[in-house]
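User: Sequence in, structure out. Go.
Assistant: Echoing your sequence, followed by the structure tokens.
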Amino acid sequence: MKKTDWQKLLKASADPSRAKQILDSLAITGNAQLKKLSAGSGRALFALLSGSQFLGEWLVANPASLSVLEPGRLKYPRRAQGFLREIESLLGPKLTAGDEAGALAELRRFKQCEMLRIAARDLARLGDVVEITRELSALADVCLSVVLKIKQQQIRQKCGRPFHRDAEGRWQPTPFCVIGLGKLGGAELNYSSDVDLVFVYGDEGDVFYTRPDAKETPRPGMSNHQFFCKLAEAFTAEVSRATGDGFLFRVDLRLRPDGEGGPMARSLESYENFYAEWGQTWERMMLIKARFVAGDESLASEFLEMIQPFRFPRSINRNILAEIAGIKDRIENEVVGGGELKRNVKLGCGGIREIEFIVQSLQVLHAGNSPFLQLPQTLPCLEKLAQYHLLSPDEAAQIGAAYRFLRNVEHRLQMENNLQTHTLPAEIPALLRLARLMDFPSPDQFEEALQMHTANVRSVYDKLFKSEVPSVPSGLPVTFEGAETEWQQLLAARSFRELDKAFFLLKEFAEGPGYVHVSARTTELARQLIPRFLALCPNQFQASSREPSVPHLTPTLTRAIKKADRDRKADATSRSKAGDDAAGPVFQYVNFPEKSSPEPQTGAARVVLSDPDRVLARLDSYISAYGSRSALFELWNNNPKLYELLLLLFDRSEFLAETSIHSPDLIDNLVLTGRFRQRKSAPMILKELRFGRSDADQFLWLRRYHEVERMRLGLRDIIGLVSFEQNLAELSALADACLQYACEAVQRKHKIKSPPFAIIGLGKLGGEEITYGSDLDLFFVADSKTRQLPMLQKIAVEIKALLSRRTEEGIAYQIDARLRPDGEKGLLVQPLDACESYYRERARLWEIQALSRARYVAGDSKTGMRFEKLASTLADFSA
């Protein structure tokens, strides 16, 4: 370029004095390279020199790096594949020669050159903030991947290779991966970001120098856990190590489970257990940006699939907004401080963190049911939030503009001296330079734009978080230890009889059994559930003004009891007006079984548990059977009607309570999917049963399906969705369908094309009045012309066994065939003409009377109809 061109560019730069000073130094060390620069490269150079003291000084020390400012290298952003190809060509010869230290030094130099190029593109306005952050993140991905390969190879040479046993007991190599979180995970890295990482390995096992086999297992050198923690330590040290060639990245591992006190690497199962039992709201938000960075991609996919229900729950209580707002308030008060709130573009009022809190909070609340919201990047997710009407188009546009503006400010602050800063400078010259780098002629205009953007963000933030009504204290005793008397008084006021046992179970409900530690979050969730339980218990106050017959009941506990009742009444009123429950299905309770009607009640009637002690004991058994206390309490707080329904079930039906404890996920599935509201006929049930025709274990399939349907009918019964008569009809339809399916299953087994006989129901089955514990009174009738009676007896026995044989899953029905002709002495399957002869010639009066309820249920319909006609004739005493 000509001298006049240099002068024009110098004058137009954001900081001419600095640019000239660095340019003079650069002319001494790299004059030849300067002369080769084009006008476009010159503009990028002056933008770079004005915007970054650190990079300018680095150029002076490394003038050969001026080649990265060639227009062809600045015009377009680079992707990870391009970075990787260049790195492999640079490092390949050194790695082949075993010079790993030299390869890592070359990697550091490459990273610094690319940071220089990206900064030049940024400051010269050749790429927007989305392009720049993606380039920075792709560069980090590739650097981390290369370091992992090198360190993994080194440690394997020293220690051996990790293996674990698969489900068949065979030894398999254990995979390892690095997961990126935070800005790295969201591909939104800035110039001086820490890289937030967690390390995952596949399974526990041992490390061997030679691969073990089924015949011989060599002596292991160390456990998989020790190996991968050692690998994680070596990897972290290398990535963050400062050398004469610079360093790669600062590594932050504090987002891992248990923070700085937790192990550096965990198995996939260990992560699953931690997040299920101990995961906090902030960890849900943090995991939204989790992304594969290096190592085994298949393992990373398993990890991301495993955390999916945790980070994007199908339903969650909006109370988390108050919790998130509390986190942000603590950041403002404890980390930033009042004097910096308006000058910190990340943590201050209306800053980047508030934008992230807005977006991620809405994702936690809604992305479980809206998969298109499951995005790790902020700006694309803002567009989707507007599309799904969770933010208005104007709000999304304003927040998006603020995010771009604030990220650009953040970049210019950090590239100045390569420091991790987010605070605006107080000095006028520095503020003027920042304003010019942001294309504002004066600091006042820059600060005016900054205030506009932060005010827009703060407005949406306050609308989302500050509008939440803070939860009113429950009035319960703050602790259990030392407050036994207060708790027992409260329990006595709620009609508990065994106060010591009830206190112990309630304490265990909140704090877990002694052999299991529970998180503070789990205890908090439990304490939110306790008032809902107490509100369902008989209140000693009742409607009168008399105080309960409990001595020394404190005013605090009195208020707690009354508040629980008010909350429940308000809850019922809200459901009645809305016609739905914000956290789950509507349950219109009625007192069972005295009150019944064919339709749900229009109001929420007062429900009182008949035996709170029994319900609490069953609740304890249910929690033990469920397994994950934290996940269960989260579910109940998100769907409080599900919790109340379970308490009601424990109170009203011992049979259904035991079933739910045996299969604790039954009720969740039925209620949350809305299946319990379905009214099914026998053909509908049979259609569903036939989906299991290919199941290898028909005994197991039939019993599990029957258990689910019986629970569904029990729920409909308990909460008053059906009348007494309708409940009997639906239970009878289930029995009919199961008998027909059993008949079909045995036919398929013996390859019989058409039903060989009819199944006739008597008693409650014939009268369609089956109850929960009813036997099925039936017998089998074959066509009069049949010649295969011996074979038919075996088939009938198999049908009976399919329904009534006891297995580890129990039975479906007890079958009683003693009402057949000649009772237990008669054949199980009898021809129609033999039946007619018996009833006309030898049957006793009660047997003829029993035919008044005879009904064809399953099997051969023609034979069944003929028997029904015969039974009608015989039982017609008026004829």
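User: And one key feature?
Assistant: The chain has a mean pLDDT of 84.
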